[in-house]
Specification:
Helix content is about 35%, strand content about 15%. α3 packs parallel to α6 and α10 runs parallel beside α15. The protein folds into two domains: about 260 residues, 3-Layer(aba) Sandwich (Alkaline Phosphatase, subunit A); about 130 residues, Gyrase A, domain 2. By secondary structure, the protein is of the alpha+beta class.
């Protein structure tokens, strides 16, 4: 959150005198000192639950701990999936939906807030891990599974529906917004190794030819130790160990494990191989950039995987994004096709032999896990539902996630800063505000975000790594 270049909707309204709540919203750690309440979301340093650093105002964490036992997220390791794991995960996900509902009701009883935003991440977690049981057409669907596993996604959504009903009744809102930034579907049984494709085209070089086996990259003892720790140690013990290590050591270990066998000096293109975002970073002279992009694009579009072309398109970052920070993103975004309605899975190329650009999962890998290719995967289409003052029944056309914040401000009768990328989707008669100078409302001009302390940076990296994002 310290590197956010523009203010949140909470900050905008708080600065205008509103009372606000932000509960379990991602990218809000460390919490902003808003006029109201902040309990930071999952991309935060503690591996299993909130602590005092997540909460504003001071003292809130102790009250949450005393009343509700705190608040948890991913209160179980998600990488090593063994017998009984799904039963435990289902129980804990349902319990956490109920606990968040009780926390929200408690806050709503305290006062009538101007903005109350909360995130239930349990719908995401259950779909990632239980889709293969839910969907009988999934290539990973087991021949038999207990009914509790087949119905886990349904059960979590029913719990969310009950929680929503209780919260709406308690809040009696003027405006209600329900949204998600993505949808869900199933993952197929084909694995892609994007860096091996770049290697085959001559854009990436490895220092040595090595393939270590499933779940491991090829960076020797560093990766072996990290993999053993993540898979075998209890998550709370992992958290204590990682927080005790110096930030510099954590950074070097992660860099060695992820990129240690890639010869970056001789490579012109490298992918992070993140399963949820197929991107490519280039290291070429500006004069050569267009030619290299054209060559890589042609190579990827011609790539064949078991009789199917996995790449739909290769997008340049400047065609997708706008603003002063475009150059910080990956040069290329690779749009992958669905195969019979299911996504491909990206895994680290050092799990594969040189020249191997894809393979089929073995049946004992179908269950997946963080960093191993989960059996449920994201879809680009999200959900947006609006109800209340100023909202007429009917479909919302051509909505994007960037339109949600300006739409909510407009419905609330608040001026919409001119630097928003999105637009109000409703109330077309509500005028957009003129551009607001950064000095007046922290617009996206030259910003000087607070430098993240070394302990914060290391803690964030450790948490994201545990969640499977790094």
């Amino acid at each position: 959150a310290t590197w956010r270049g523009v203010p949140t909707i909470h900050r905008i309204l708080s600065d205008r005198g509103a009372r606000v709540v932000s509960l379990a919203v991602p990218t809000t750690w460390p919490p902003e000192p808003l006029d109201g309440v902040v309990v930071s979301g999952f991309d935060s340093p503690v591996a299993t639950a909130i602590d005092g650093s997540f909460c504003h105002p001071p003292g809130l964490h102790e009250e949450l701990r005393r009343r509700f036992g705190g608040m948890a997220f991913a209160d179980f390791q998600e990488r090593r999936i063994g017998p009984g794991w799904h039963e435990v995960a289902r129980t804990r996900l349902l319990a956490e939906v109920d606990r968040k509902r009780r926390i929200a009701e408690w806050l709503l009883r305290r006062e009538r807030w101007d903005l109350f935003m909360m995130v239930f991440g349990e719908s995401d977690t259950v779909a990632h891990h239980f889709w293969m049981f839910h969907d009988p057409a999934s290539p990973r669907h087991p021949a038999s599974a207990p009914g509790g596993l087949r119905g886990a996604i349904r059960d979590v959504y029913r719990a969310l529906d009950r929680a929503l009903g209780a919260l709406v009744e308690r809040a009696d809102p003027d405006i209600l917004c329900i949204c998600s930034d993505h949808g869900f579907g199933g993952a197929g049984a084909h694995v892609l190794y994007l860096n091996r494709v770049l290697e085959a085209g001559g854009w990436l070089r490895y220092r040595r030819s090595v393939a270590v086996g499933r779940g491991r990259t090829g960076s020797g003892a560093v990766d072996a130790a990290r993999t053993w720790a993540v898979e075998r140690l209890p998550v709370r013990l992992q958290e204590r160990i990682f927080r005790a290590l110096p930030a510099s050591l954590l950074g070097r270990a992660e860099s060695r494990a992820r990129y240690g066998d890639i010869d970056l000096r001789r490579s012109r293109a490298v992918s992070d191989e993140l399963n949820y975002a197929a991107t490519i970073h280039l290291d070429v002279e500006p004069a050569d950039r267009d030619r290299v992009i054209e060559d890589i694009t042609a190579h990827l579009l011609q790539w064949q995987v078991d009789g199917h072309r996995p790449v739909v398109a290769v997008h340049r970052r400047e065609d997708l994004y706008r603003g002063p920070r475009v150059a910080r993103s990956a040069d290329l975004v690779v749009e992958l096709a669905l195969r019979d309605g299911y996504t491909y899975t990206l895994l680290p190329s050092l799990q594969a032999a040189p020249g191997q650009t894809w393979r089929r999962l073995h049946p004992d890998e179908y269950v997946g896990g963080k960093g191993l290719g989960m059996n449920g995967s994201h879809r680009p289409e999200g959900l947006l539902l609006l109800w209340g003052r100023g909202v007429e029944p009917g479909p919302i056309e051509s909505a994007g996630v960037e339109d949600v914040a300006p739409t909510l401000l407009s419905l609330a009768g608040e001026p919409v800063p001119g630097w928003f990328d999105g637009r109000p989707l409703l109330s077309p008669g509500s005028p957009r505000a003129a551009p607001v100078p950064p000095s007046a409302e922290s617009g996206p001009g030259p910003s000087r975000p607070r430098a993240t302390r070394p302990d914060e940076a290391a803690a964030i990296r450790q948490r994201l790594e545990r969640l499977g994002y790094l």
